[in-house]
Amino acid sequence: MNFWTFLFVPTIVFMSLVAPIWIVMHYRAKNKERAGISEDERQTLDELLETIDNLHNRIDTLEEILNEDHPSWKDSVKGDK
Length: 81
Description:
By secondary structure, the chain is an all-alpha fold. 89% of the residues lie in helices and 0% in strands.
């Protein structure tokens, strides 16, 4: 069997089966990278950020109430650590 015949068959198999699949999968991955986050993910992220802001406001309010009712509450919390 000739050397060129020996290389011809694997080259044809690679070009007809492996290369197209490889190219399709490569560009699918590129499109997913470029797309970033979806609209549902962005909406969920916005809701989570809003929840964090609300919780932060609640903590600030609770600290203000504690400061009015028990001015030395921070000293006792720091002493526990």
